[in-house]
Each structure stands twice: as C-alpha cells, then as structure tokens.
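Technical appendix A lists one of the benchmark inputs used to test multi-chain prediction within the project. The record comprises two sequence entries:
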Amino acid sequence: MSVIVEQLTKQYQHQTAVNSISFEAHPGRIMGFLGPNGAGKSTTMKMLTGFIPPSSGKASVCGFDIVEQSLEVRKHIGYLPEHNPLYLEMYVKESLAFTAAMHKLKNPTKRIAEVIEMVGLNVEQHKKIGQLSKGYRQRVGLAQAIIHDPQVLILDEPTTGLDPNQLAEIRGLIKNIGKEKTVIFSTHIMQEVEAICDQVVIINKGLIVANDNTSNLKNLLSGGFTFYVEFDNSVSEEQLMTIESVNAVQQVNNHEWKLSSTADIRKQVFDFAKSNDLALLSSKQEESSLEDIFRNLTQ
Amino acid sequence: MYTILKKEISGFLSSMVAYVTIIFFLVITGLFLWVFPDSSILDYGYAGLDSLFYIAPYVFMFLIPAITMRSFAEEKKEGTFELLSTSPITDWQIILGKFGAGLLLVVFALIPTIVYYYSVYELGATPGNLDSGAVTGSYIGLLLLGAAFTAIGIFSSSITNNQIVAFIIAVFLCFIAFNGFESISSIASLGTLSSALINLGINAHYQSVSRGVLDTRDLIYFLSFAAVFLAATKTVLSARKW
C-alpha cells in the first residue's frame, strides 16, 4: 500500500526534468515533496499518476507498476494536479458525482455528502464551481481526489492561494487522511512541512538532495543557533565574543545584537549580563529552520 | 464510457450548445424546405424531401465541427484533460464517450425533421404518395454522414487546444471529405483514377445510401471512415506519452 520509486527518470529533448530519483512513501507517514520551481516535483507526480510515462526507471503504487498496470494504479490514487483544473460550468455536486461515477462508487450520494462535509463545502455545495472563490475550488479539487477513498493521495501544491483559516483546515484534513493512507504532497511553504510532514524529500534540478525524517533533517543540517538579545546599555562586540561558543556577533540596533553560536547559550547570555551589570530587556533564540536547510540545499 | 457520454451531454445542455444546434439546424432546413422558393417543396410540385437531404450535409459541415470543437481542445486548455486521463478509464473510453455524445446530439437534431416527413406525407396529392424507402435510406445516410463528420470533429479538436483552430480544421476536413474528392476527380487528365477518387469521397456513398439501398460497401465505408479518424485521435492523445 505504498509508493516505491526506483531510479525514475524523465528526459525531455533538451533537459532532464527528473534524474534517476528513488524514494519510498508509506502509509501513516505524510511525505512532503519540496523543491524550487522547476525542480521536477510536478513531473514526478505526473509520472506516478500515469499522465506521462517515465523515460526510464520504475515506480509502483500499491504494488502496481505505473506503466504496465496504469489503470490499476489510477484506481488506487487520488490526485490533485497543480493549478487544480476543474469543470467550471458544473455544479459542485454534479462534478463530484461525475468523479464518483468514474470510480464506479457503489453509493455515490452518501459518499458525496461525506466528502462535502469533510472538506467543508456545506455552504457552497449548491453553487457552480465557476462561482466559487479560489479556496473553495481547492476544496472541490481535494474532494474529487479523496472521493473514492484512495490508498495513495498525491497532491500537487494543495494549499496555494488559501487564506490562513483555510490553510489550517486543509492541513488538518491532510493530516487526518495521512494517519492511515500514503500521502505525498508538494509545497513551497516550509512551515507547512514542519507542521504536518513526517518525511521530507527535497529535490533540486531533478535530483534528490535530501530524504529524511523531518526532525532528523533539522538536526542533521542545523547550522547552530541564532540568539537575538537586547540590553539596556551599550556593550562592545569584543565583550560579546567572550561568551562561550559564540562565533559571530552582529549589531541589529542600538543595544540589540544578533549572536550566532554552535550551542544553546541562553544561560551564558544571562550570566554575561549579570557579570557586566546589564539588564536583559529581551531575548529570543531560533533554531535554524527548514527554510534555511532548503535554501542551503537548493542554491 | 457512459459516464463521459453523460457528462458531455449535460455539458451540451448547460452551455446551450444543444439548444442552439438543434434550433439552428431546424430553422435552416425549415427555411430551405418550406420558405425559400428555389428549394421549397410547395413550389417544387413533387412530394419529396430531396431538398432536405441535399442541404443537410452542408449544414452538418458547419454545425458538427461547432459541436465537437470543444471536446478535447477545451479539456486540454483548462487542464481538465489531466483529470480525465488520470482517472481509471482508458483513452478509448474517453474518445468513444465524446464521439457518442456528439453523435447523439446530431440524432436529436434529426428527430424533429420527422415532422417534415409527416407533413409531406399528408400533403401529397394522394396522401402517402411518398417514397418512404428513399426517405429512410436518406435518414440512415445522414446518420452515417453525421458519424463521419463527428469523428473528423473529435480528431480536429484533439490536435489543438484552441477551439477556433479545431473548428476551422474540422470544417475544412469535412468539406474535403464530402466534396473535395469529387471535385478533384473532375480534372480531365486523371482518366481511370477519377472513379476511384469519387469513391473515396463521402458524397458518392451518401448518394448511394440515399437512394434507399443500404449497400454493405457503403456501410463499411462510413464505419471505417469514422474508425480511422477515431484511431487517429487515439494516436494524438497517446502522443503525450512519446
């Protein structure tokens, strides 16, 4: 019930969009697929869903080969393409009924009501899709993708263009589905990955540059700590450099400093202030975020 | 396939395409049949539907490409083709669904013209003095012609994502298929080749079916004509995988 990709390659005439990538995604673990624009995320997803065939390499979904058993694969996959294409002239329910019929669902009316509830389309369910705002269209796309209760859910940038409330709801929904099913989704938003992904695959120029647990990845690549501190009086750079394990000091404001260190220095900074008769007005420590990791890996 | 067909039909209905098509077809044929003096049955003096079956192919030549121009062009442009082709159905099911829907609309446009038949039937100097065999044959001919044109339209729509381009290509292909071969065959220097060319065109077979004799050769011609264009469509759709 998982997705296994082995040396998958997509070669276009003048460029290699996806270059021999391998990864696995398993049920119960949400996989975030990261990468700058044009890195090959969508191409990989299109290959997995059988829209375009790979140039070489293999991949299987729920044990079915994506080329040889494309039809079986498509039965087990729920797919939300990038830009969320929809039949704008259809009514919400009509469109869901169409998707349900394509998957030959037994009791479509009941299931349609269920997914409408799940994605929060209750209020808008009698409208034409063309009349809906972007966030609601996104929900329709998501509803179509999950209507047949697929084992594998592939979502290409499902949260673009949503407002913060909708973001939270949709993330919650994805997280819920990810408890039992295999979810692969691509995004640019790092906080999103930190919030809901168990596993992160970062891809750049068609190559995988990182593939690990979200927490491992952060530990492995963390460049250290950043500490923002504000004193009530002036203090010199030299003095600050004496603090244990501080390797860089930068003045942000009059009495505000940014300290970079290799270890946790909260206690040391406090001791430093005490011994120099300074009052600590504010302090904030940041771990290096996935965003930094992403930038390091893909630039 | 049935799901696609249903979706296409409801698309025709909600976008007014269906109503406009049927009304347009009936108004044009009605005008030619009953109003315009040159072709009016009332002035013609014989109880026959010849002018309907003469004008209908030319109306279809524009009408059917208009019906079918959206079928693939729009799906490709809007990106919904990706939804369709990643659904658990085959390309053939998509193609046949769309073809069937187009053909069904043609049938619905033809059905009301039975009123014309009934009128002429009753209007004859002796009511019923009408060559019903020829009329039946002509209707079958029109249906087969409609199938051929629909296949051309579906094919044209699949090779572009611009509806206007699809329409123009389809009209052109329909015209060449219907009239073109015959016109070329009249070039004097072709000699024996000319009869073969005539037989390649739709018109020769349409005329033959219209006489009320359903020859298997004509039937096979129309079916294989449609099949060729549908197979070409399938090839075009698969081309994304090359």
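Chain B has 13 helices and no strands. Chain B has one domain: 2-241. Comparable benchmark entries are summarised in Table A2.
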